[in-house]
Write a structure and sequence with these properties.
The protein is an all-alpha fold and about 190 residues long. About 75% of the residues lie in helices and about 0% in strands.
Length: about 190
C-alpha cells in the first residue's frame, strides 16, 4: 500500500474518532434545540453525514475545534430546517438527570423527576437566545470564545447574554421554589 494512501486512511480514522467523541454533546444540544429525541437523532445523523462529506475539516488533533465545528454544522442544519418548516420552536436546555442510582428510593426518584421538570419549565420560559447560551456554556462547557465563534458574535455579547440569561433563570427558579423555601435557605 502506498504511503500516501496509508496516511490518508489514518487521518480519516483519527477524524472519525474525534467526531464520534462529540456524539453525546451533539445529541444533548440537538435535543435542546428540537425538543424531541427522535428529531434530535435525525439532526445528529444529518450532522455526521454532512461532516463526513465536507471538503474542509479541522485537524483531528484539535478535539475542541472538531467539537466546535460539529456544533456549527448541527446548529446550521437546525436553523435551515426550522426556517424551511416555518416553525418557531424554542430550545429546551435541561440536561437529563444523571443516570439513576439503582439504590435510590422511590421518593428520591420522584423528587429528581420533579426537579428535572421544574428546571426544564424554567429554561423553556427563557428566550431562545438565553436558552441556547445556557446550554452551550453551562451544560456543554464550551468556552466564551468557542460560543462566540459558534454564534458568530463578539465574546462580550456572549458574556453579557449569559449574565442576563442566568439572572432571568434565577428569577424564574426563585418563583418556582416559593417564598417559604427562600426563607429557609437564608436561615
Amino acid at each position: 500500500m502506498p504511503l500516501l494512501t496509508w496516511q490518508r486512511g489514518r487521518a480519516l480514522r483519527e477524524m472519525h474518532r474525534a467526531m464520534l467523541a462529540c456524539h453525546d454533546s451533539l445529541f444533548r444540544y440537538a435535543r435542546a434545540l428540537s425538543r424531541d429525541p427522535a428529531e434530535a437523532e435525525e439532526l445528529v445523523q444529518e450532522c455526521y453525514r454532512r461532516a463526513l462529506s465536507a471538503g474542509r475539516r479541522p485537524s483531528p488533533a484539535d478535539g475542541d475545534e472538531v467539537r466546535r465545528w460539529m456544533f456549527v454544522i448541527l446548529r446550521n442544519i437546525w436553523k435551515n430546517d426550522r426556517r424551511a418548516r416555518g416553525r418557531e420552536d424554542g430550545l429546551e436546555a435541561a440536561q437529563d438527570v444523571a443516570a439513576q442510582d439503582d439504590q435510590s428510593s422511590p421518593e428520591t426518584l420522584l423528587l429528581r423527576r420533579a426537579l428535572q421538570f421544574e428546571i426544564r419549565a424554567a429554561l423553556d420560559s427563557l428566550s431562545e437566545a438565553h436558552r441556547e447560551i445556557i446550554v452551550l456554556r453551562d451544560m456543554e462547557g464550551l468556552s466564551y470564545e468557542q460560543i462566540a465563534r459558534l454564534l458568530e458574535c463578539p465574546v462580550g455579547t456572549v458574556m453579557s447574554r449569559l449574565a442576563r440569561a442566568r439572572t432571568q433563570l434565577r428569577g424564574v427558579l426563585a418563583e418556582v421554589v416559593g417564598p417559604e423555601s427562600r426563607r429557609e435557605a437564608h436561615q
